C-alpha cells in the first residue's frame, strides 16, 4: 500500500517536472528568426522595424542616424538587447563618438537597464559592442509605476556627442533581442486588458506562440506538490501515533 | 467508437493549426498599404529627388569621375530599382542659368521629371541631358519640391543631393525645411553631401534634422547609389501617417481625440491640451514624443499629464534627457474601473469620463540658434483605448505559493495535523474500548 503511494507521488513530481520543462522549451527566444523577413532599421518610433526575438536586426546607415527596431516581450521573461556597431576602417574621425542603445516600452517610456554596457565610446579599432538587460517583464503593474509590461519594446541605437565632422559616415549595425525565462518567481497576479502594443501603427506584432494567457505559472506545481507532501506528512504523523503492528479491529471487541 | 473520437480530435487539431497559421498572414496583409489603399491613388508614397547641378559638380573627385557622372550613374541604377508603388519625380537646381546674375541664378530650379508613375526610359533620358551649370539655390528648390509633392494622403520624401552649401542667402534652407515640416504634411527631407566640407555638413544635417530625415556624406559612387536606393525603398515602407491637430491652451477648449496617431507643434514654454473620453471598463493609453528639430540646449524634459475636468491629476508620465537626441518620449495609462462612484466623473448623461491630456516640454533653444519660437517643436501623440486590466487580488499569481519555505511549512503543518488526529483517534478508541 505504502509503496503504491510513494510511486504515485514520484509520478506526480515527475509529471510536474515534465510540465515545467515543456513550458520552458516552448518559450520563444531560441529560434533563429525568419530569414525572409526584412529587418533593416527604421528611423523613428513610427517606422521602427519589427523583429522577433532571436532574429538579427540590421542597418546600413550613417553616423548620426537614429535607428529603431521593435520586438515583442512577454510576461515572466527578462529581455536582453545586444548591438554591434561596425565602423568603416577609413572612418578616422568616427572614433571618440559615444554609441548608445536605449530601450523603450510600448508606451514609449524609457526602460532602465539592470546591467550591460549600454553606452560605449568607439575607439577606432574593432566593432562597438553594446548590451542592455531589462528588468523582468511583469504581467501587471500600477499605472504610476513604469515597470516593464508585456508588449512591444523599441530599441534605439544612435551616436551621441558627435562632432560635425563625424556626421554622415557610413556604418553598419546589428541588433538582437533575446530573453530569459525567469519562471514563477516573477509571476504576479493580475493581467493587462491587452498587451502594450501601439494600436495605430504596424509594429513588432506578437511573440511566435502568441501572448501568454497569464494562467500558467510554476507556482501551481509548487503549491500542488506542497499539498501532496503535507498530506503524506499528515499520514506519516498519524501512523506514528498508532505504533507498529498493533492492528486491532473493532470486530475483535 | 474510439477511432471516430480520435478522428474528430485530429480534425479539430488540424483546423486549429490552420487557423493559427492563417491569422498572422491575414494581419500582415492588412498592414501593407500596397493592396487597396494605394490602388485608389490617395495613399501612394511620393518621392522627389532634388539634384544639385551647379558648376561645382564638374569636379572630378568621386572614384576618378566627375561628381555629375557619379550622380547620373547612381540615378540610373536607382530608377531601375524603384518600387512600382512609389511615385517618383526629379527636380534640379542650378541647371539652366549660365549667367552671373545672382538674383536670376537663385531662381534657377526646374522640375525635370514630374512626380507620378515612373516611366524609366523617359526619366533616364531626362537625367542624361543634364550638364553642370549655375548657382546652388537649395532653399527655393525645397519650397518648389514641397509644392510638387502636394496632394494625396501618402508619405512624402525629398532626397536632396548637393555638393555645396546654399549660395542664395539670406533665405536659410534650414529655416525653409522647418517651415515645410511645420505644415503637417508628413514630409521628410533626407540629404546627401558629395565630398562635403564642414560648413556644408552642418547645413545639410540641419536641413535633415529639421524634418526628421537623415544626412549622409558620400565619397564613392556605390555609396550614393545604395543610399538613394535605400531612401526610396524606405518611402515605400508601410507606416501610419499622423493626423495634424492643434491642441488648445486649456482643457475646456481642447480638441477631442479618438484613438489614433496625431501630430502637433508646441513652442518653448507652451502647454498643449487634448481631450479623450474614457468609458468605464476601458483603459486610456497615451504616448507622446517631442522632437528636437533645431539646436537646443543639452538638458531637457517632457511631461504628459492626465487630469480630470476639475484639474485633479490622475496620472503622469515624464522623461528627461541630455545630449544629442531626435525625440524625447513618455507615456501613461489610465484604466477606468468598471463601477464608477467617483465624483469626478465627467458626463452627466452617459458615464464617459472626460480626461484631459496636457503635453509640455522643457527644451530651450541653444544660444545663437536661428529658430527661437516659431514654428514650435514637433509633437507626436498616440492615443489608444483598450479594455481595462484585471487588477490583482494578491501579490502573487492567483495567490499561489512557491519555494522550499512553503513546502517546509506545508509538510510541518501536515505532520502536526496527522499527529494530533492520530492522538485524538487513539484517545477516542481508548474511551470507546473502556466503555
Automatic annotation (TrEMBL), chain A:
Keywords: Signal. This is Peptidase. The lineage of its organism: Bacteria, Bacillati, Actinomycetota, Actinomycetes, Kitasatosporales. It comes from Streptomyces silvensis. Residues 1-26 form the signal peptide.
From TrEMBL, chain B:
Residues 1-29 form the signal peptide. InterPro entries: CLCR (IPR051266), VWF_A (IPR002035), vWFA_dom_sf (IPR036465). Residues 46-235 form the VWFA domain. Residues 318-351 are annotated as: Disordered. It holds the Pfam family VWA_2. Keywords: Membrane, Signal, Transmembrane, Transmembrane helix. This is VWA domain-containing protein. It comes from Streptomyces typhae.
